[in-house]
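Researcher: For the annotation table, I need structure tokens for ABC transporter ATP-binding protein. Please keep the output clean. Sequence:
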Amino acid sequence: MTDRPFLECRDITVQFGGVRALDAVTITAQAGSITGLIGPNGAGKSTMLAVASGVLSPKSGSLLLDGEDVTHLRSHQLGRLGVARTFQAPQLVGEMTVLEHIVLAQRIGSGGPHLLRDYLTPGRSWIRADELERASRLLSGLDIGEIAAATPGALPMGTRRLVEVAQALATRPKVLLLDEPAAGLNEAESAGLADLVQRVCERFGVAVLLVEHDLELVLGISSNIFVIDFGRLIDQGPPEHIRQSRQVKEAYLGVGV
Ligand SMILES: Nc1ncnc2c1ncn2[C@@H]1O[C@H](COP(=O)(O)OP(=O)(O)OP(=O)(O)O)[C@@H](O)[C@H]1O
Ligand SMILES: [Mg+2]
């Protein structure tokens, strides 16, 4: 744990055409803890994750990683520095097994050779024994070892989401950005996911930034929460503060309360 925010998005402004998607918003995420980012539809949450992962350059503001200014780095460079993300829509490849997804992510994380050439060579085993061992260990550590040989398409949505988190983790991130990981999950699946994200934080000391519509999930596992509405930061604080927040109620109910 460090008291210094591991990730800081400082005074971030993003403009699409004439529209401000983010207006001087500052959020921070600490290593070894879960930070929630919530707000109604179109508030700017995915836009903030795009900035934090180097996919989008802000019009103004800075991105800091462990105190270093990384505003001008692109996503592959930030990836090398330990920033991993999952997407709002699932990104798994139908034909590869779960284990193969994890090995690929591990290779990307270690800057090792790309696997596609090996993968596409018929009859060749492209996974080395040490990679197999490491990927299997990660899956069992996350209690999903039994699905190693499955292809994602054959798995329930909730399990697929767990695989995506495992895949992001396999790159050994310092920062994990999760965009609505519980979308489309039932209650039991959401609980499994919440449990996984918490374990990730504890075991690997990762700074997790969690965007999620399921407020109970966010309030249940985050230590600090930022709330944005129409591109502006309207409140922030621990769950007990957010539960009582008038601004948050207004933003979600759309009325004065
Ligand atoms: N590439 C883009 N071009 C133009 N406008 C965009 C683009 N991406 C997002 N926007 C707009 O920016 C605003 C913020 O969008 P964003 O996707 O960040 O919201 P969000 O909080 O993630 O919403 P949701 O909860 O629906 O996922 C919205 O008004 C959206 O329409
Ligand atoms: Mg979004």
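Researcher: And a one-line annotation?
Model: The CA atoms of residues 107 and 113 lie 7 Å apart.
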